[in-house]
Each structure stands twice: as structure tokens, then as C-alpha cells.
Design goal:
This protein is α+β, with helices and mostly antiparallel strands and 623 residues long. The chain has eleven helices and 34 strands. The relative contact order is 0.09.
Amino acid sequence: MIGAALLTAACFPATAQTLPGVGKPAHRNAATWQHMYEYAFRVQNRMDARAVTSVGPIIRSTSGPDNLLATHLQLTPEQSLAFRSAAQRFAPADRDLTRRARALAAADRAKHPASRALSEDTRFKIFELAGQRLTAAAQEEAALHRSLSAAQAAELDEKISTLFAEHLRKFSPASRAAAIGLKGALSSSFGIRTADQAAGGANPGYANGGSACQNLTPDEQYDIEDGCEDDGEVYDLETCGCDPPPDGGGGGGDTDTMPSVTFSGPSSVAQGGTATFDVTTSKVSQSQPVQLTLTTLEGSGSAAFPGNQTSMSITGPGPILISGVSASSIADNIKLDGSAFFEGGNYSVATTGPLTFSVTPPPPSLTSSTTLWFFGSGNTPPTAFTQGGIKSVITASGASGGTFSWTITQGKSEVSFASGTQTSSITTTGNAVTIYSIGPSKEANDATLQLTWTPAGTSVASTASLNLSVDSPSALVSKGDPINRGVTGSCITPQAGDSGYQSLFPYAIKSVLGVYISNIGVNEVIGAKSVDYPGNNWPSISPMNVVNPGQFYDDLCAIGVVLNPPTFAPQPTLMTTKINHFPQHTWYVGSTTIGSGIQVQTDTLQYYEDHGVVEAVISPVPK
């Protein structure tokens, strides 16, 4: 790459001198240290393929730790964090300026295809870009040192110089000699800054070294370097030629894009449960593993991969299972992270898009104490009714302490936390709550109650839900043919005879959910009388009410030999003369109070001389 070549070839010093017994360079040369930090930043970011391959033998690994370069240099946590942050801040300028330098060089070659060297104007512009990149590195170097203590900054200088010394061993004999015995010590031409200067970002004066390739002009060096990069090879300052990348990998291609590992998945995993997370990789070798890790950031709580492991390797994108081991005490404090590899190479890079989640307490189990029924507003079933009730206690088993937030998420017209009115949410300190029916379900389990339980001393909640139904009377079901019989006496206590008739229509009560209901109040409303036989003096009829034991009768009775026309016992062939009828006759279930309860049937009562008929039946009644 043209931009990289200008700084890593033309600006390396040719000689160095070690101070015996000191272990540190004698003085601090600003420009040289800027080069070293620029190089270290680029190694960290893996933006320059040649920078990666140059240090490949030192930092190559397949174990994929979180920060391989920091591990190799034995950086302290403070140094590692500050160094990586500085490298990341430097990366955008590095990418932009390198691309611009490439574009300039490509345009120059297109204009002068026969020339071995770039034009003077292009070289000048590229040098300007290289200077800008060096300035960007210097700014981040200064910020990096200001963020550290004086001792930490000086120690970091020594470790970065060690890395650069290893780099120089690949070049000319003079450069290699400069690195012999160097463990954080470079030549006096490199210089050293004091601990105070390091912490303050101070840079003494600039002294430029010469090129390690003494027999070529800079133009020739750049041309060879550029050809090396285009062919995916490495420019060798010792031979001024091209070498293959180490191990046949790591060179060539567009390495401006960092390898990445990103995750998607739920925001929580239940303790004792599992959840699926998806792994996506970019610029990652399919033949090299991606190392995944799980860590607790703060507080308590833990999660694990299969086999109860906190780390695992995968060889490509795909789903992974994570189980919740112990509940988090702080929300989003479990971190799923990973280390990736360059596509086609062997160089571990800790570059990820981590995901955080929580491990929630085991969800409690919600149970209802009884089946909910609705018999109309204000109606309570009699004590003989044993099929449920109009209220129920919901208990959260397996949960105690903390706060319990209850919410009706569906069916707010059916259930409530208050009797007779809608209250859809409530918070308790105990694990039970009473819920009331305020309307009928349309189908089974169409109401949902959700609990959010936050145990004491944590901010991580566990949720549970319970589906509920509110059953209710729906329709009358005929239980057979009508019974017509002759009676005498009164219709209140009729006796067998031939003074009149009693027509009985047997019914059972069926609920919305198909349950037959017993021991519940039933009542009727009689519509206005309509006369079919002019001049008749048959009286109007009175409504009835009863507690249904499981089956009841609609009773059409008429007794009166002195009436006009008179009544008769049922004849072998039933008579056809109509006397009166009562439209809009309505049955209610849920109360013995006339007109109260749930409407289940409408019909017309038709009276003849010797029998009665129920006509125009509608059941259930449309709501």
C-alpha cells in the first residue's frame, strides 16, 4: 500500500545504539516515536496487511484471547484499555489517508504507465498525506500518554519500542544490528522522553534517519513496494524485493475492514433455561475458529455455553445455545463477546460487537384457585353452585419477597383486579392477588394475566403469565319433546284431570365454553299479550323463577271451564284454535330476580284451547 510504504520504508532509522545496563533509550526523538506508535496502532487495528505479516511470527495465535497484542506485550489493564482506545481513534484517519494515497498512486500510474517511479507532484501529495497520518498518530499518542500515569506511560514506551525492534529485525543488517539486545531500548537517534514528558505528551525535537535501502532512490523503493502490496507480498527492506507472506497467509486483499463478530438474541435468559443467540461474522476465515466468551460485567449472575463452559469455539456463523446459570443482580450484566480471524490469515484480532443480557430468576408458576364465572353485574351464584365463582386468587408459586407487578394484558373487559369495575394493573408485596370477573369470555383462554416479579435486592425481573377464561351462561338446550297432559285445580299446584292442560318444555343451560350449568338461578320476563281469539277472557300469565337443579321446564298452563272459550285437556288430535300469544318472552340465567342475569333465549308463547307451544326460538341470543 502506497501510504504505508512511505512511512514504514523511507522513514526507518538506519542505525541504533543501546545504552549498556540501562534498558531504556537514551533520549526521546519525537518523530521516531510517532512512527513506532503509528506502527503499533496499525498492528492493533490490523489495517495494513504488511504490518500484520511483519509481526506475524511474534503475535500469531489460534487461541483467540481478548487482546492478543496486549497479551504479547504484557500490558497492564490500564495500558491495554488506553492503547486500544487510541488505536481505534486513529483507525478512521488511517483508513481515509491510506485510500487517498492509493488513489493518487493509481491515477499517476494510469497517466505514466511506462514510468518506474511516481511523478514528483504525486510523490509530494502522498508525502503530505503520510505527514497527516503521522500527525494523527502523534495526536493519539499524546492523548494516550496523558491518560496514563508517568510510570505507566514510560513503561508503555518501552514495550512499544520492543515491538518495533522485533519489526526492524526483518530489514537491513544495519537495522537488525540496531535491534540486537533491544528490550525496550533503541538507538540514541530514537531518543527517550522522561516519565514526566511521557505522561504529559511532550515530544523533543525531530531527527530523521535515512533509508535502509541505500542503493535505490525513494521513487524506486515506492514502486517496488507498491508492486509487492498489489501481489499480496511483503516488501523486504533488507533485499529491497518482495517476499511471500509468512505461512502463505495474511497478505493481499482489502484489509481496511476489520474482522467482526456480532450477535443477536433475547435480552434475557431464565435461570435454568436456555435461549438461542445468533452469531454473524465478517472478514473471518471459515477454517479458523471464532472464540466466544461469557463474562459477568458487574454484580452477580452467570451464564454458560453447552457443557457449562464460559468459552467455546465455533467455525462460522450460526446459532448457539446459552443457558442461565445464576440470576443477575443487575440488568444487562452478562456479556457475550468473541475474537475473530482475518479471512485467509492466521492473525487473531479481538474485534467484536458484544451483546449484553440478563439472567432472570426462574419464572414463578401462576395458578388460579377456581374457575371464573360471570352471571351479570352484581349477581353472585348461590352457595349450591360448585362449578366456580365470580372471583379467584392467583398465586405465584416459587416466588417470595420483592415486588409483584400484575397486569391484565388481554381480556380487560372480562377480568379486573377490582370488583365491578375495570382495574388492569396492581402491585403487591405478596405472591398472591385476587381477580374478579366483569364480563364473559368469547372463547377459552382469551384473557391473559402477566406477572413481573423483581426479587428483593435486585433490579432483574422475572415474568410469568397465565391464560384465563370467564365462563358464562349462553343458551338453553332442549332436553326432549314437550309433555302435554290434562290437569285440574290451579296452575300453581295442578293435579291430573280434564279441566285444562299443562304443556311442559324441558331445558338445560349451556355455557359459553360448552359446560352444562346446574344450581343457578333462572328467571323469565313475559312480553305483552297479543289476542288471537277476539272476546276471550283468558287471563295474562305471570313470570316464574327457580334455582335450576340441572334441568327445568317452561310451563304453559291453562285451566278454566268457565272461561270464554273454555279450556280442554289435550285431545288426540290437538286443536288449532289460537287464543293468545306472548311475543318477546325472554329467559335469564344467573339470578332469581326477574329480568336479572344473562339473557339466554327469546321466544313466543302460543296458547291454544288444549295445549301450548313455544315458537320463534332464538338461543343463544345475539349480543
